[in-house]
Hints:
One of its GO terms (biological process) is carbohydrate metabolic process. This protein is mainly α.
Amino acid sequence: MDSILKVLMRYYNMVSAKDLESFYFKGLELKNTCHITVDDGDITVYTHLFPLIKKYNIPISIYVSPMAVMTGKNFWFQEIEGYDLQLFLQYYDKQYNQKHAFKNKYQVYALIKSLTLKEIHQLVDGYKEAYGIPHKPRRCMTLEQLLELKASGLVDIGAHTMHHPILKNESIEKVRDEIQTSVEKLGELLGEQTKYFAYPNGVPVIDFGQREMNILNECGVKLAFSTQTKNFSIDDHPLSVPRRGITKGGPMFVLAKLALGDKWEGLKRLLKGKQEPDFRLGRRETGN
């Protein structure tokens, strides 16, 4: 992680979420800039990333669930990390009377993400009960750790819903509750207005749309981050700011990925086959 930050600092001007807000709303000019965002509030942000951003004075923003912070309950995808996904797919097929040949992890995650939050929790809890799998240890930071990050002046903290649903799969009532409650509760925990948000999973059209953007606007959110893979620009909607993922690989891999830009996604599919969005789009087209 240290070496990756050094690469980013060498080639980009590191800016804050507040700078991005000024870019979109106040005409601040930004050139060759990078803003680091981290979703889910994993404890490694505090134990690994926080010491490094203090060392190099790098501003970042993180996106957390007030529910996870206060209760310590993991998100469903954190619970199934490391599971035997072929066995999990068999269990899924049994529950939904379907039949799939296992292809890769993206296929399984695509199937899960086609469900409502209630269905996902029932599926994961049922699988754990069927195979005697215990709950995993807490993954989210505590409130005390979150407040320490905030007090550093380097970390802006935004909302990430309460339970990490795929918003597009939920009713308008559920979506409003997940977004509004997370924005309000986080504001209460931090003692400040919640101005930033990151969509769970975050693929435009598949995971969120205009409905969700309208609710965020009503809640006073200024910037919301998607996982659309492209560079940000003034042409973006402030409630659908794109990002490039750099969660895996060493510094040279990350640099090559950023240098390839929009060509990276095509190369990844060529090397690794269909990705999760491909499976999910396929399901929508076929109705399966």
